Amino acid sequence: MYKKFCIFMNFIQGISKKQFLKSNVPRKVKQTNQTVFASQEQAIIHVLSLLNNTFVTLTTLNGKTLAWSSGGTEGFKGSRRATSYAAQSSGETIGRIALEKKLSVVSACLKGPGYGKEASLRGLKMAGIKIVKIKDVSSIPHNGCRPKKKRRV
Hints:
This protein is an alpha/beta fold. The chain contains four helices and five strands; from the N terminus they run ααβββαβαβ. A five-stranded mixed sheet has the order 3-2-1-4-5, covered by helices on one side. A hairpin with a 4-residue loop joins strand 1 (43-49) and strand 2. Helix 3 (84-100) runs parallel beside helix 4 (116-127). The protein is globular and about 60 Å long. The chain starts with a helix and ends in a 17-residue tail after the last strand. 26% of the residues are buried.
């Protein structure tokens, strides 16, 4: 069996006979009454919404970047980059790129304090992307840093 595997895989180095046999040993599977749904999403869209700009990144499930867009790459300058319209247009751009790469079902990770989080998701919907899961991964301080001393006038 191992020899057939080596011939089939064109003698790939790095896997020992012990590892190969260990991976192909049939195991007993415990059956339960719960229905297990397979993960539908084909990619992850990360939205980083800051006070000055909004970044929308299309990645694989492993985290490898496929495409990215922001308010600045859409042609907005200065304070107009922070608007929800700029975030929506960057979301539409990423949506079109995702459809070109045949990634129509995605999950979204939102991060940051800016205004562009919902607008970028609206842009993705307008492009025809189906969003299965929305997760907010913004960092929340657990009492945070010590504040500055009070001003005495």
